[in-house]
Fold each of these.
Amino acid sequence: MHEEVLPDVLWRSRRGLCPNCGASLKLADSGREVRCDFCGGSSQVERRLRKLEPEVAEQPLPKPQIKGATRWIRLHGARERCTCPGCGGEFEVGETQQIVRCTNCGTESKVEARMRALTTETVQGPQRRTRADQQNQHRKRIEYPWDVTTEMLCWRVINEPDPDTRLALASCFESWGFINPTTAHFLPWLLQQVQRDNDAVAAAIADAVGKLLCNEDESLFLPVLQAAAEAMLDPQGKRCIMSEVGLGPPIGIKPLLDAAEVAAARGQRDHACHALWGVNTMFGRNFPAHERMTEVVLYRMFYLTGPVLGWAVYYLQGGCHCGYTHPWVKLAPMIDEFAQERPGVAKELRRCLLALDAGSGAEYRTRLDLLAAMHTPLARVAAAENLGKPPGGDPALCERVVNLLDPMLDRPDEVEGAVAGLRVLIRDTEAVPDAVLALVRRRGESLPERVKREFRAKLPGSDLLDRSKVYYWQSEPKPPEDPEVRKLMADWDAGIRATVDHEYKLRDSLRPVRDAARERDVPIFLEDEPPTIPLKPEPPPPPPRPRPVPQPAAVPRPQPGDDDLTSRIMALQQEFAEAVMALSKRAQDLTITEAQRGKIMAEIQQLGMNLQAKIERLIKER
């Protein structure tokens, strides 16, 4: 059956791994973007093409029988452009397409969805700034997103030719005043300087990494870690960056483990152990996040090798002095998966599962459900010997435990777990459960020696076992060890000792040089120069208010009986009012010049004078 070959968690979980911190992500039914609840970073599901492989007729993998499992996520957008793995040509792929054929070469490909990090585009590095720029920014005369003084410090550290002066400038990062978004923005260029500079300057610049990761502004964490990740993957890179990343938040565990894996693959054991030393420091400084960090380690153990795998096993078995125990319900299923993928690792993980009593009946039932669903004998043994006692001696739970352990007694590779589980039921319950009594009555002397001895010690007067027989004490069997994994653990132990000794010697040698650099007073800005950042444009002047329209002079009121004169005067006034209104609208137009507006006002005044003259002439003619 498919379930016996591939653990269902691998195709039922609907989860991806965050490309920023390595934690598991719950993928939604729709939407391209996914936000990690551990590090807060955003990721996108990216569609790629993989060359179509022939189907294996002998053992086809059936589709999972749950809703939506064939697609992890439905992407927004009807079509996307993908690159052909055969010829490299680009063509569009529809949202619902699973198998596509290249229009150029005819290669058939399978559409896959993968997670990729959302990163900012490459931007310009720090530029040379002047004191005038600093003063203009202080007076808010420029619009610039970065702190000018910090940018100039970054530029000086990168471009200063004298090593002593460069060290004095780099020591400025010990001040929290230079730990800000500007330093985080230009950190990639600073870390490039770390890689090519001497150890003293490199350590001084690297101080900024640790401070940025210990800053209260959490929005800086991911950009800093992304910049540091690239530097830590450099085979010739300075190890001080790893030490500083280890001081930061728990989301930095992924880039540190990445650096360790890459270094181990190159044969650079000490470089890998230094990265793992940073992980140890991170565990010691982030107790509330131990569960999520441990999950990151567990997921990666499927493909870890060398001293990195040795460290992971060392940590899970109680190393690093963290005093943390991974939850039973999460570790036990992982042992089942490892037993199929990497049996040697599963043997060592069996030592990590502790028989802690369940906090409630519901939790204990969950343990029993997991035990019943396990696929491998090794996982069933690990779970059975660490089940713990049923809460309150619940008879129903005790009966279910016995029903699960009874068939394991007949399997040579599982009997050890069944013995341990039955001994707990007998020894740690107030009264021997009825289900255990029924098992002893049914199996009698065929039970394993240690079970019978435990039962005789609890019920010395019972007739269910032959009272004439003596059951001698037997030492507890030790869980098997994997020699290959043990060798890797020893390699890790030797590597971390050599790494710590080397680092402490280096720090002692750099201390007097760095102390002397702190005493030097080196100005950040060079000689006075004109500003390099343009000033903010002056705001446009407010539009001028229209001048008041001159009113015509008062005219004599017509006498009674002058109806014809009155109507003629009213007609002249109506004509004047319409002309003035039209000219006033033209004067309020913002697109005309002041000269044009003056001509309009003069024309209005002339109309008023003309109206006055016409009215006076009419009155005289009366």
Amino acid sequence: MPRYIKLHEDVKVPVLKNVVYALKLCLKADKWLMLGYIIGLTAEQFFALFIQNILFLKTLLTAIDTHGDFKAYVKYLVLFLICSVILNILEWWGYYMSHVATKKVLQKLNNMVFEKAVSLDISCYEDPAFYDKYQRATNIMSSGYFDIICYDVALIVADTLAFICVVATITSINPVYLLFLVPVLFVFAIELYKSRAVYRRDLEMTKNNRIKAYIQRTVFLKDYSKDIRTSNIFLVLMKRFEAAIKANIVILRRYGLKLFVYSMVSSLFSEFIPIIGTYAYAGYEFVFKSSLTVSGFSVVISSINSIKNATLDIAECFDELSQMALFFENLRSFFDYEPKIVDGTKEAGEFESLEAKNISFKYPTAEVKSIDNISFKITKGETVAVVGINGAGKSTLVKLLLRFYDVDEGEILYNGVNIKEYKVESLRMAFATVFQDYKNFAVSVYENVMCRECSEEDKQKAKKALIQSGAWEKIKTFKKEGDTVLTREFEEDGAGLSGGENQKVSTARLFARDFQVAILDEPSSALDPVAEYKMYENLVEATKEKTVIYISHRLSSAVLSDKIIVLDKGRIVESGTHPSLMQSGGEYSEMFALQASSYNRKEGEYERESE
């Protein structure tokens, strides 16, 4: 096995290190995956390559050549039968244990990948390179690479044991035959280059495969079904899908000839030269020199085949292990990734104040700042609205307050202390958040609200929260009410909700929580004006004496606020109360006047619909 594989000038992948890393992971998850394969494969290969093809054949043919008696012949047959039964039992038991262990290892390794994914920075999800690495890491699970690597190591152990016994047997007949096995050694080098080419090919296909997977998933998702059926976007998606396939075909063709040549040369050195050479020399010894008996000739031919098979198995295993090492390099680097958002040591206590001091932030791939030198302070019990048009930097501000990202300049203080000094989980748990890109999950309504498995007490609390958010009117129409699973993806009696109803369920999480500060990022974006007004009434009631931050481009929340911060292109352009900002006649008053006229038109439509 090579020490490392050089993919590029500056990229070297340590093969042995990654193989050992993979084996440690598997042994930690369940040792019987490896042990089961070693027992099963050793019993299978040792019996097939040595006992059956060599030892038993040599014993029987020698008995015939020397005109041994029939009783001895029968005795050998019985011994062979007993040995065969024992080894077959061991083989079955080993494979059974490894089969059971495979499920356990898959579960544990998947859990490790999922837990790592959850711990990663939010910024990773906006990085295509991360998605490629994440996909290659999960492919190790879905493609069963961990199973393959244990199987290959076990097969190398089994074949090596059989190989040693067969070589000892053939050496006792004539050591010259070992010379015909020398070309097989070149197979290892050839398979190394082949595995490197296969990995590079698969690496180049990753992005195309991700595009294909995205389109395959999108076509079947309910969220996209209406748009796909009422527009020409399906044709756009299909063109992307076909382009990804064509790009993969180009890659496959580019590597196809090279891989074919590697395979042909490998076959030449592993099969043609050893077999033809051995047959020719054995025939010469048997016919012309008469130095080889019939039994010796048969054993030599059988031994060479056994050695060839064992050597090919080992070469192929080294080839696969080299490939697995390349894939496990992705998994290892995925697990080794250290979040940029580093935990502090302090616990976030009861909220007193939240202050931003000259903070600026730019996304890694962006050219301009999303937040540009802004400062503000929010004290306990205040209701603050952060308003502005789409793209003003409002949602980015939320991400900074929750430490999904860290500011590039300035600092954010919680109770006068830089938020970097707090434990991340403690800080985030001080906030109750409702995001504009809300998501509900394929679990029960109650579990969606409480975000945990629910007791009867939890269900009552969730029901109250659903009433406050306005979602209960719809939920109570379901046969199982709050125990109904959202979406019909996994449950026939599940329920689908409209965008507004889904947002109400998501908002109910806030009503169900005990929080220090509520951050509402466009909490009513999917609601009509009437439902929006009712929700804000309930929010005002639920957040009495609480600190609330409204993030919105709709200004109905601003009227209820103690302070309004107006953002534009990442900067604070206005700040004050609703009356003062209306009186100043700036950007806020213009936005409010435009939205007020829009609301008046909508209210008129609702009145006509109700007549």
Amino acid sequence: MQKNICAIFLSITFCSAFLTAKSNSRPTGLMVEFLRNPAEGNVNTPFPNFSWIVNGEDSQNAYHILVATSRRKLDTGFGDLWDSGKIISKESVNITYKGVPLNSNTSYFWIVRIGTLKSKSFSISDIQEFKTGTFGDGSSVSVMPLVKHPIRPMEIVRKNLMGNYFADFGKAAFGTLRVQIESQISDSVLVYLGEKLESPGCIKRNPEGNIRSRLIKLNIEKGSRWYELTIPHIPRNSKYPAIVMPPQVGEVTPFRYCEIETHSPATTCRAVKQLAVNYYWDDTASSFTCSDTILNKVWDLCKYSIKATTFCGVYVDGDRERIPYEADAYINQLGHYCTDREYSLARYSHEYLMMHPTWPTEWIMHSVMMAYADYLYTGDQKSLEKFYNDLKNKSLISLEREDGLISTKTPLLNDTVLHAIHIQGPIRDIVDWPQIERDGNEMPDVNTVVNAFHYHALTLMARIAKALEKQDDELFFKNRAEKVKMAVNKIFFDQHKKQYRDGEGSDHTSLHANIFPLAFGLVPEAFVSEVAALIRSKGMRCSVYASQYLLESLYAAGEDKAALDLMRSTGDRSWWNMIRAGSTITLEAWDIKFKPNLDWNHAWGAVPANMVTRGFWGIVPLSPGFEAVQIKPQTGGLTGSTIQTPTIRGAINCSFKTDNQTSFDLNVSVPSNMKTVVWVPLRDIVNPILKVNGQSVAARQQGKFFVVKTEGGETRFLVQKGSQ
């Protein structure tokens, strides 16, 4: 009887909350284990985490979660699996389920209602269904299945009376083709799929490198029907260590164009569709525009590249190999975070690479970087806890000599070390790839680039240890990092040139030996301007991979004009060159002349997907799970821009307009349960005065910025020229 009374009371309470809540204040964006559509996914834990977005201008101060075996029970306000009760908390991400353990392969339902500081009533979400996977069967990371999306051609042309057709789908995608053929006889047609054109309306049949062109013979029957092409496997990228496409999806190939040759007037092509395969994606989660049209197109190219290259269900290096690599995956991860509210694919890729590492020394240490980025963007430390000891090993601390520096040309690199990082073969330094992109780096045994990564891995391990409340380890890694920093600056830094040499015993100063120390905070403040000047003078003398750290180093030094000029460059080493070449997905290298075996679908070439957000706009989490965020526009002299970037707590929207001399008008909108530190640019404004929401304020000035701390919601910052 008492349970029935409670159920009736809860039902009344929930219905009342629903009726009194304003529509724009209801919690939305519900996720279970980072899955936004968990009814179609696999939640691979009996104790999942729940997250939601707090809407409106008023911060949440309480929540109440119900989990049930049916939608009907929640409709009556009854959580038969878990009723959290009213929890006084501002937290809206990674709330762990504390009911009875969930079963494998079962559908469940949940709902959340939240209270805010001002409102006396609760706002209630819609009910969300989620489905569990098979517990203990492979990875514990919850994932979504790959899906095929039918895409109509932008253009379809009948080329001649014999029934030859050409179709352009606008963008390349990994997938296959569905075609409707009507024939008066049993026949066969030839279907060509390709990424590149030889001439208008004609696919390049034998393209350079690993640019794809595929010929498939399709047998057809009399009558009219739809056919789906079966794509033949390419041996190199369809067996381990390549990622094999799941049987329910089938083999795919990247293509933008198709040609169909029927060879008979009795056979007609009625319709074609590109069946594009990718991971769950929301095109509306992010947007960017600015006053430079080239940068707009570059960002669009890079955003789409992140989406298109999710076709394997794990981050891979492109179609040439389809192998996950840590550096590729890290750049992919950051780009994915900045363009879609998606975290499961990055975590799955990271955890896969923890156990299936690749050979470059720096790639091994990228696993520490992936782990920390996962924690910083999600706020969830389960993966850190699971792999903590492995991450310690992947900092390569076991290779340190007495001064803290590491080398792979040492007896310390033995089978025990290799086993601890889960790799069977030897590891060796890479600096950059292909080799032609190293700016002449002499590759010394004790290398500046490798040790910059080692320092960075140690600093991140100290933060990871702190997050896991391992105080002794935190102090240990901090001390080791400081020791490495001292050695790097003592042994590698040329005090006369004010530049970093390539390594021990070298007098050569490559671009790479300087961008990584600057990007990772190794350069003493007194020498930042000299190191940045060298970097600026060399330009894009590196690969698409190293451009990530080149741009990071320039933004770290306040060289935003140089960084912007690289992203909107029209030279051979530019993203514009990829567009000019005809690709709609970023290339493996700047141009085929720099890497003759390149492919046209490499996400590590999509660096602006994250650097527009994290560099140009300076939007980065200051605390795990975006509890606090920094917004620091470094605009390079542009006169206006707008951006929407997703976070686990909801979208951040910003815009600015300026003439760079008399005013800078910045509008910031962040979720209500997010703290912000906004760096408002002064540019060349003389005697700047700051107004926040129309009110003059006294703010701390740091360099060419006013620094203001605010709470969530919408805020306008206006800097104007003051009187002389």
Amino acid sequence: MGERGYGFHGKVLEIDLTRGDARALPLDPGLVDLYLGGRGLATRLFYDAVDPGCDPLGPDNVVVIAASPLVGTSAPTAGRGHMVFKSPLTGFIGSANSGGTWGAAFKAAGYDALVLKGRAAAPVYLDISPEAVRVESAASLWGLDVHAATDRMTEGAEPGLRPKILAIGPAGENRVRFAAVVNDKNRTYGRSGPGAVWGAKNLKAIRVRGRLKTAIKDKDRFQAGLDQAYHLIKQAPVTKRLMRELGTAGLVELIDLIRMLPHRNFMDCSHREEDLERISGETLAKTLLVRPGACHACPIGCQRHTRVPGGASGAGDEKGEGPEYETTVLMGPVCGVYDLSAITRANYRCNELGLDTISFGGTVACAMELFEAGALTADGDDGLDLRFGNGAALEPLARLTARREGIGNRLAEGSRRLAAFCGRPELSMSVKGLEIPGYDPRASLTQALGYMTSPTGACHLRGGYAVSLAFFGGAKEIPRFSLLQSPIAIRNMQNLGILQDSLGVCRFTGYAFAADPWSRMASGVTGLDFSTARLEEVENRVAVLERLFNIEAGLTPADDWLPARFASTPIVIDGRERVVSEAAMEGMRRDYYRVREWDAAGRPGPALLRALSIKERRP
């Protein structure tokens, strides 16, 4: 590590919830050189601390949250934290990332990473500042939604030092397998079910506050990278205009234009133009938008602060944030719903209750197909019509799921377990148990391979955001149905995502630039040599470590596969029927392993481990 005080505070906070004690440990300087920060550092600390065979909802699971050397500086979007844990939804590594302000506030409290172990005997929250770390009773907070708990924990705050809250809602308390952890009331560590892990540990929230700065070693070098980054962000159309004017919902009509927008549990990608207009980013801007917003240190400003007026249903006016693209699509067209107000209200409930909107929407869509197939009933106290297109069911289903009441108790298990329970496992549109996001894999072999090989399951972030490469990539653009280029392309996109997560920055910066500006900024902050070649080593090292954990947790090549629907049911693009055939999946998977320098079973070999300075834990 560079000189203490440059980029890092040099401290890891370890809290044993079983004993109720905390201790500050020195951050191993070698870990910074090898893993940088954020996702990389969190993955290493997690791997060293956890038994891969542990019960994800048991006391032996470990949660690690890490910041990066850029967090706390003026680097664009550098305010994010990264959380790693064993997922209760998939049984493999869980990896979640969030913007907002909590990540920067945690770094300002004087720590580079937080390691959470054990299980509290009763509900607790953590209070972290440079002066003290306390484990406090959360008895009065347990049962509150995220918004109410956040308000309660910020009452009477010192002027100018408002604490930042990271909390779970009832979904996490009730161990919904895709429960989220939420900061700023609406920014979520959403995917893979971290909220359920917190709930199982009886951890309600973490409050942080501090004023410590991130010192910069070489200010001229940092400034050179910073100037380059801001120049490129102001030039790229997506970061210059689209995200600021329309937010992520501006992608709805663009993704439909390339016939990649899924419909009715991924049965097809066919939509009526007038239906899509009702849920587009343009319509959101005209009808619901109050103002745009931004996360910490973000010049892009994609947040949508919205207001839903009361309607004939008797519902009153509501204000909140979103919906984002993924929420709009998964709770919209994937459920056959084109009612923007219904989607937005359901999104508000998910944020308050602490639910990942992607997995929630994908699970509801699965339930709707099961319902229409006669494999699932929603009778008794629920009385809900679960047919596709019923937007009125979304909001009550969110409440039932978070509380595990009625049919919500089945939905809370996620689509894979729900479909298996109903005897139709093929109707879960998931990979490794994680629900597929809002991009149909049949419309891009690169994205298909990204879903297949993502360490966390079907994730457009951890799997590689191939949409930006295939359609908005400029000079980097590749044919989306290329079997030859897809393995290399998705490896590169996954690595860029690892870099962004390890730097604590937003994926949207990738629309403007790749590694060069980050190399200058990271080197300038720390005083270390983080050349682009060194950063590539970090990326490959993290990818290998995530793979090792998953193999130790039981993963096999069979888990790197898509649901059968995508091989058997075609969609039509430019007059041609498109599927992701089993032969294509097998060939791309083989070539991806080869590009990663893994063996035929997808396992990193001894030579690669030595080259990347990774000591394997077990044979």
